[in-house]
Amino acid sequence: MGVLDGKVAIVTGGGRGIGSRYCRGLAAEGARVMVADINAAGARQVAGEIGGASTRVDVADESSVQAMVAATLEAFGRIDILINNAAIFTELIQPRKAFDAIPIEEWDRVFGVNVRGTWLCCRAVAPLFRQQHSGVIINISSGTIFSGTDGFAHYVTSKAAVWGLARVLARELGEYGVRVNSITPGLTSSEMVQEVYPPEMLEARAQSRVFRREERPEDLVGTVVFLCSDASAFTTGQTFNVDGGAHFH
User: Fold this and answer.
1) Which residues are registered as beta bridge partners of 33?
2) Residue 196: CATH number of its domain
3) pTM exceeding 0.90
4) How many other C-beta atoms are found inside a 10 Å radius of the C-beta of residue 24?
5) Confidence of residue 207 (pLDDT cuts 50, 70, 90)
6) From 22, 155, 176, 197, active-site residue
């Protein structure tokens, strides 16, 4: 038996990279998972591997998010967990740019997915969570909100907004028994990161940690499972920094 038996989870951005690891980790603990991604083919592949369901979603679009929730209810009959993982990172914001050199359209696109998308997903599941007096929301923020990484002003600021939103929702939804927490990963060597960052940069980042190795997507799964499980039933409004000791708080 798994610690998430009987639970239903939505993972946005679940069709690749770190999100796909969240899907596999939740499924391994017994959860039924809706793999939601703008890349429908990737979502289908991951869902097929874990015996879940998949749907295409553009989290920045309200109707698409509502359709994702409807598809999850149709497939599984309920929703217990929302992992807000979908985000723009390497696919748009490389190369680095000074804050005043970022095109307005690029700034708006990052905020549209990272902030508006997270807010829309929370907004869509909130009525269900209120009604059932239970639910878990995990916002995937970023360790860059602590370091203020230069050249990524839109990404860092958007992830700080996602972190702030989780704290507000923890208070607003707490009376309904809904837990809302954030995870701040360090730079994680997903497939996409490995495509963009040279090996020497990843190695330098590894040497800056207490645990002197690259962070892998699998390093985040245990924290996600814990926060989704009853083991964290009295934990809300918190930030879980998973970066191998790059930042202390």
Assistant:
1) 9
2) 3.40.50.720
3) yes
4) 21
5) confident
6) 155
Domain with 193, as residue range(s), is: 8-242
In a domain, 137, yes or no: yes
Q: With beta carbons less than 8 A apart as the criterion, state whether 57 and 64 touch.
A: yes
Q: What is the residue-wise DSSP string for the chain?
A: --TTTT-EEEEETTTSHHHHHHHHHHHHTT-EEEEEES-HHHHHHHHHHHT-EEEE--TTSHHHHHHHHHHHHHHHS---EEEE----SHHHHPSP--GGGS-HHHHHHHHIIIIIHHHHHHHHHHHHHHHHT-EEEEEE--THHHHT-TT-HHHHHHHHHHHHHHHHHHHHHGGGTEEEEEEEE--B--HHHHHHS-HHHHHHHHHTSSS-S-B-GGGGHHHHHHHHSGGGTT--S-EEEESSSSS--
pLDDT in tens, 7-18: 999 999 999 999
Nearest to 187 by CA among 239, 127, 240, 144: 144
Using alpha carbons, select from 210, 211, 215 the residue that is nearest to residue 190: 215
**Tens of pLDDT along 127-151?**
999 999 999 999 999 999 999 888 8
Is 22 an active-site residue? no
Q: Is residue 1 part of a domain?
A: no
Which residues are 183's β-sheet partners?
140, 240
